[in-house]
Every structure is written in structure tokens, then in C-alpha cells.
Amino acid sequence: MANKEAIVEETDRRVYRHKRRVRNQVICYIVLALVMIGLIVGSIIGIRKIMSVISDKKHAQELQKQLEELSKQEEEAQPVVEGPAEVSEPPQETATNYLDEIVNSCISEMPLEDKVAGLFIITPEALTGTDIVVRAGDTTREKLGEHAVGGLVYFSQNIKDSAQLTEMLQNTQSWRKYPVFLAVDEEGGKVSRVAESGLADNVGSMGDIGSGGDAAAAREAGAAIGNYLSGYGFNLDFAPVADVIAEGNTTIGDRSFGGDPNLVAPMVSAMIEGIQSTKVSACMKHFPGIGDTTEDSHDGMAVTQKTLEEFSATDFPVYQAGIEAGVDLIMVSHISVPNVTGDNTPSSLSGQMVNDILRGQLGYQGIVVTDAMNMGAITEYYTADEAAVKALQAGVDMILMPEDFGIAYSGVLDAVNNGTLTEERINESLQRIYRIKYKDKVEE
User: What 3-state class would DSSP assign to 375?
Assistant: First the structure.
């Protein structure tokens, strides 16, 4: 029995030793396999690094060879090179597309009521319903929220001192829903609301500058005006006067550069460039030209007997020069031109004068604004709403100072709602307006 147990124990020990040897062998094989795999991977990495170095070296040699060839070509071409190549400007189409995207994005989000209000430039008194406005307070903020007008125009009564003017315009800008024109008549000479209030040096009359015959002086005057206007917060100047005066005219007088279109055209063009170089929009006036009339449209109908050929010889060359100078706005007067239109319709309400001649014949695609619609030439014959609708139908973009803003605004809104005017027509004018208001975003 004892021998049998001994044999079993010996057998178990042999089996155990056998299993241990097998296990140790397996471990050895595994370790050996891992070592081999490590060697193979290391070899592959090493080979790749060597190949990379060789490739980089080869690439570097190729680059060096190419540089040497380019240098040789430049040396050979050097005698015919006149100067460094100009850096090409971004395509104009790209800038235009970007501007259109900004404009269309703004317009698409505007309710119809805001669109219609954006076609009007009115006085701060017409906005707030107060007698004289010298500050922009809670009433201004509230009314701008109700009627997002396209612009406000200020006169001498609104200007007291530098601090007051600056604060009033800054507050107005901070409370508007959309970009707004803050405008003033600052022609130089006697029509200078800011300078005549003692807040800037008057550059003198355009008649005096025109008599000197130096367009550079007109450009300097425009830049001087633009600089002090922008300093206070204005961004639109209803200047320069582009009228070519005839002998005996007292309506315009020395507000004009003179009676020779060959002199007036470069003067007007230079002044526009001067004003707009300061980021203030210029507005040349009074299309198609009121230099030969002795009547004042402030008081009633003003008529000129000029023919289209006569306008083309005297006044239109001045407007063409201003258009080529890039003027932002053109003001259409209320003068009647029966020898062109066939009746006494004021130019500001005439599709023939605005769409056919100013836009069609002269090619102007900027903002067209009426002269003040509270003048007798309009108010004696048309109601405020009737005049505003007719002006828009004629192709005008902005209505300046209607006799009654509330009536004019409601009249245009009703005209859109009843189909007399289309919303597309309103959008067309807003696109022109906002291309000017947003153009600095593209220029930046």
C-alpha cells in the first residue's frame, strides 16, 4: 500500500514537472516572439526615418535647384522690369455683392411701417411734436421707436453751442433703430447753419470761390465743411449748389459758383470730393437747375422755359460731373419745366425728369431726394400724402420735410397696402438709401 502511494506521488511530481517545463517553454516562446516583433517594428520605423531623411534631403536639393533657376530667370529678366508689380485690389464685384448682402439683410427684416418711415427726412420738431428741439431726450427716443425715419435735418434754431449740438446728435444716433441721416444745410457763405451759429469758421460763399477759378479751393472748402460737420455728428450735407446762374437771377445769387458750366462743373465736382472725403455724404442741388428762374418755389410755382437741349448745354454737364465724382445724393427741385414735360408738374413729382432724364439719360443710380415738400410750389397744389406718393411714383427715394409728416407717412403706407405703390418699389429706394448708409462697412 505504501509502495502504491509512493508511485502515485512520483507520478504526480512528474506530471507537475512536465507541466512546468511546458509552461516555461510557452513563456519563452512568447517572450521570444515579442522580442522579434519589437525588432521588426523598430527596423520598419528606422527604415522609414532613413527614407524620410533621404526624401527630405532630395526634396531640399530639388527646392534649392528650383530657387537657383528662379533667381537666374529674375536676373535675366531684370533689365525689362520697370517697377514693382501693383497689388491688385479686390474685385469690385465682390465688394458690391458684400454690400448688397448687408443691405438686403437689413431690409428683409424691416416691417412695412419701418420701411415707409425710412423714406422720410424730417425736422426733429416734426418727429417729436414740439416747437423747438435743442436736445434729444426721452421724447426723441420714444418717437424714433415709433417712426424709424430715414433722416433728421437741423436748422439754426436747433444749434446753441458745441456741447449741446454734439450731445443732441450723439443721443439721436444711439437711439435709432436703423442707420439715420443727420443732415444740415451747410453750403458756405450765407447758408451755413453751423458756421453762422458761431461753431465753425465760414469758408465763404461759393460765388467768391468760383470767381477765383481754382477747383482746389472748392475741394478744400468742402473738406473743411465736412470735417467740422462730422466732428459734431452730422453725416449728410445738403451741398453743394450745382445751379448755373443766368444774368438777373436773385434766387440763388452767390450760392452758385457762377454762370459758366465749364467753370461750375469742376468746382462742384471738387467740392463733392472734399465733403465726402470726410465720410459726410454730399447732396448736389437743385436738379434740373434753377439758375435762370426769378421765382421762388418757397412761395409758389416756379417755372423755367428752358428746353431739354438748353438744359443739356448748361446744367446737365454740371450734374454729370457730380455723378462722375460719386455724389451720394441729388436733390430734385420743384421747378416746372413745361418745354420738357409738356405741363407744369414740379420736377420733384415728374417721372420724366427723375426716371427718364436723371436716371436714364444721366445714368444716376444714387439717392434722389426731393427739395423741402413744405414749399408753396407743392402745398398750394397737393396734399402732403398726395405729393409724397407722386414723388415716389416718379422715382424719388426720399421725401424731405413734408407739410405734415403724419399725413404723408400714412398716405404712403396706405398706397402700399392698396396697391397704388408696391412694396418692391419701396424696397428699391431703400436699397439705394442703405447702399450709401452702409458703404463704409465695405470700405473698411
Answer: coil
Residue 135 pLDDT > 60, yes or no? Answer: yes
pLDDT band at 52 (very low <50, low <70, confident <90, very high): very low
Q: 3-state DSSP helix/strand/coil percent for the chain, to nearest 5?
A: 60, 10, 30
Q: What angle do CA 19, 22, 24 make, to 5 degrees?
A: 110
Cross-strand partners of 336: 303, 346
Cell of 94: 465682390
Show Cβ contacts of residue 103 under 8 Å, excluding neighbours closer than 6 positions. 430, 431, 434, 435, 438
Topology (CATH level 3) of domain 92-443: TIM Barrel (3.20.20)
d(CA 234, CA 311): 33
User: In the Cβ-directed half-sphere of 245, how many Cα atoms lie within 13 Å?
Assistant: 17
Q: Can you state the angle between helices 162-175 and 215-232, rounded to 10 degrees?
A: 70
pLDDT at 316 over 70: yes
Integer Cα distance of 355 and 37 in angstroms: 86
Report the distance separating Cα 360 and Cα 338, nearest Å.
19
Whole-model pTM?
A: 0.78
**Residue 298 φ/ψ region, left for φ over 0, alpha for ψ in the -120 to 50 degree band, beta for the rest:** alpha
What is the rounded (10 degree) CA torsion for 174, 172, 239, 394?
90
| Residue among 343, 263, 346, 243 at smallest CA distance from 297 | 346
| Ordered alpha helix ranges (H), 78-121 | 92-108, 112-117
12 vs 249, higher pLDDT: 249
Angstrom distances, CA of residue 166 to CA of 119, 129, 422: 25, 22, 38
What are the tens digits of pLDDT across the range 161-208?
Answer: 999 999 999 999 999 999 999 999 999 999 999 999 999 999 999 999
User: Per-domain residue ranges for the chain?
Assistant: 2-64, 92-443
Residue 190 has what DSSP assignment? T
pLDDT of residue 384: 98
**Which grid coordinates belong to 41?**
517594428
pLDDT of the residue at 80 = 40
Burial class (CB in 10 A: 0-12, 13-18, 19+), 235: buried
CB 304 within 8 A of CB 296: no
pLDDT at residue 32, rounded to an integer = 64
